[in-house]
Amino acid sequence: MESSFFAQVYEVVGKIPFGRVTTYGLIAAMIGRPQAARHVGFAMRAAPEGLPCHRVVNRLGTLAPQDVFGSEDFQRHLLASEGVTFLANGRIDMKKHCWS
Fold first, then answer.
1. What is the pLDDT of residue 1?
2. Distance between CA 8 and CA 28 in Å, rounded?
3. Which positions of the chain have pLDDT values less than 50?
4. Which structural domain, as residue segments, surrounds residue 57?
5. What's the per-residue H, E or C state across the chain?
6. Cβ within 8 Å of residue 15, ≥6 positions away
7. In degrees, to the nearest 5, what angle opens at C-alpha 27 toward C-alphas 25 and 29?
8. How far apart are CA 37 and CA 87, in angstroms?
9. CATH number of domain containing 15
């Protein structure tokens, strides 16, 4: 069942448009498992190369912990290169960039 769940997560992540982000919770809801946001995070850690995992953030627009991408700056750089903007507090402008 876990591999099926991960496959569903990866299918959604693969659809996140350039310049947009979505959250662990929204992905969980999209696959019919609204209480499984934490498991979406587990899937992200095991994701195959080539998925735009950098486009998945928490509900507040905060970037992944620095150990995920090697540094928080790397994820921020990838998103900024796609035109994603950040608020003064360092979070992503979710009103502008959230995809659901």
1. 46
2. 9
3. 1
4. 2-97
5. CHHHHHHHHHHHHCCCCCCCEEEHHHHHHHCCCCCCHHHHHHHHHCCCCCCCHHHEECCCCCCCCHHHHCCHHHHHHHHHHCCCCECCCCCECHHHHECC
6. none
7. 70
8. 24
9. 1.10.10.10
Kindly tell me the sign of the dihedral angle through the C-alpha atoms of 31, 35, 38, 39.
Answer: negative
CB hemisphere CA count around 3 (13 angstroms): 0
CB atoms within 10 A of CB 8: 18
When divided into structural domains, the chain yields a total of 1
Residue 63 to residue 80: CA distance in whole angstroms? 12
Distance from the Cα of residue 33 to its chain's centroid: 16
Burial class (CB in 10 A: 0-12, 13-18, 19+), 76: middle
The whole-number pLDDT of residue 59 equals 95
Catalytic machinery residues: 53
